[in-house]
Design brief:
The protein has helices at 12-21, 64-77, 92-95, and strands at residues 26-35, 45-49, 54-56, 81-86, 102-109. It contains three helices and five strands. Strands 3-2-1-5-4 form a five-stranded antiparallel sheet.
Length: 111
């Protein structure tokens, strides 16, 4: 089950902790840098479990799908990744950042 809610009404870190307590494998995506019109500020979080469920937001919906896909690989291989998306990047149109801006997101396995 995939859940999406406003990042203002939930605590992704608390959710990550509860998912870990339930025995779920979890990755955390954190916005580390933005430029231009990126919709979420640095420090925003998205928590993802191994079955693809996620809560929080790193971009207001622009790149969440790509981040969730990368998080699945991080959960499997345990190797953190730095992701970058933006209008100057060849992935901009595929992930939906056509509105402008750039975003860097760090994805790491928590357990």
């Amino acid at each position: 089950m995939t859940l999406i809610q406003s990042s203002e009404t939930l605590d992704p870190l608390g959710i990550a902790e509860s998912w870990i307590d339930e025995g779920r494998s979890v990755a955390l995506a954190t916005v580390v840098e933005t430029w231009g019109s990126a919709p979420r500020p640095a420090g925003s979080h998205l928590v993802i479990d191994a079955d693809g469920s996620f809560q929080g937001s790193v971009s207001g919906g622009c790149v969440e799908g790509a981040v969730v896909a990368e998080a699945a690989d991080v959960i499997v291989d345990g190797k953190a990744r730095m992701l970058e998306f933006g209008v100057a990047d060849e992935t901009a149109w595929r992930v939906g950042l056509s509105c402008g801006g750039r975003i860097r997101v760090f994805v790491e396995k928590l357990n």
